[in-house]
Design goal:
With about 250 residues, this protein is of the alpha/beta class. It is about 30% helix and about 20% strand. The chain is globular, with a radius of gyration of 17 Å. Bound molecules: 2-phosphoglycolic acid (PGA).
């Protein structure tokens, strides 16, 4: 695992975008795993800028999103389908047929999870972007989720619903269930880039890097992946005791 520390959110987002841009330049038909949440918004902003500046095109890029709420219509502003269009897809030249976001019809969830898995098996991701929850979740793999899980339906942790209630009128409106790639799907990506910002992520980042590998902190499993890059701002890195700006182990 390589951990890079940046002064603030903006610098971290620029560096994370540069990482993704390099991968797209090397492989224009990159298969890219995407994350939602507040953290990657800056990274997406700089990807859009690189597209506007004719540095990269997404014409051949294929994307797979990590997760989606169950039961929110895609048209709901807080669905991850809406999020991705608002912050990335509506501003680049990606082809709609190359966008994959888990479908979330509550009637057919088990079948939809199986179908999403099957699609990913034929499309090994070259790079998976991840955020991290305060509780150490990756995607919606909440503490206690089994490491061997493939795409599945998860009951959201109360901490996650509380964290995400800032986007809804009240916590009662936050969906209770989601469909998410499992840890096994995430680990199957050739490379992983995790971004985290802010003091409220410092403990999760510490446990991810130094804690026991345990399903109590799902992100700790990343210690076992051969190609993980973590980009954090100073606040998120504050418990790592980094003397320089780079740690590798
Ligand atoms: P955040 O969410 O970027 O909004 O903090 C990250 C996550 O829950 O994975």
């Amino acid at each position: 695992m390589d951990i890079y520390k940046y002064k603030d959110y903006e610098d971290m987002s620029k560096a994370a975008a540069a990482f993704v841009i390099r991968e797209i330049i090397k492989k224009p038909n990159l298969i890219l795993g995407l994350a939602t949440g507040t953290t990657p918004i800056g990274l997406y902003k700089y990807l859009i800028k690189a597209y506007d500046d004719y540095i990269i095109s997404f014409k051949e890029v294929k994307t797979f999103n990590l997760d989606e709420y169950v039961g929110l219509p895609r048209s709901h502003p807080e669905s991850y389908y809406s999020f991705m269009h608002r912050y990335l897809f509506d501003h680049i030249d990606i082809l709609p047929k190359n966008i994959n976001i888990p479908s979330n019809d509550p009637e057919n969830m088990e079948r939809l999870a199986t179908e999403y898995n099957a699609k990913m098996f034929g499309n090994q991701r070259d790079l998976q972007i991840l955020g991290i929850g305060q509780n150490g979740h990756i995607g919606f793999n909440e503490p206690g989720s089994r490491m061997g899980n493939m795409t599945f339906i998860v009951k959201l942790d109360e901490q996650t619903r509380l964290d995400n209630s800032r986007f809804f009128k009240s916590i009662d409106e936050v969906p209770k269930y989601a469909i998410t790639m499992g840890i096994k799907n995430i680990m199957f990506s050739k490379q992983i880039l995790l971004v985290a910002s802010g003091k409220n992520k410092a403990e999760a980042i510490y446990k991810m890097a130094y804690g026991d590998v345990s399903d109590d902190v799902p992100a700790s499993v990343l210690q076992l992946h051969p190609h993980v890059t973590v980009m954090v701002d100073e606040e998120a890195a504050s418990l790592l005791n980094m003397t320089g700006n780079h740690l590798t182990f």
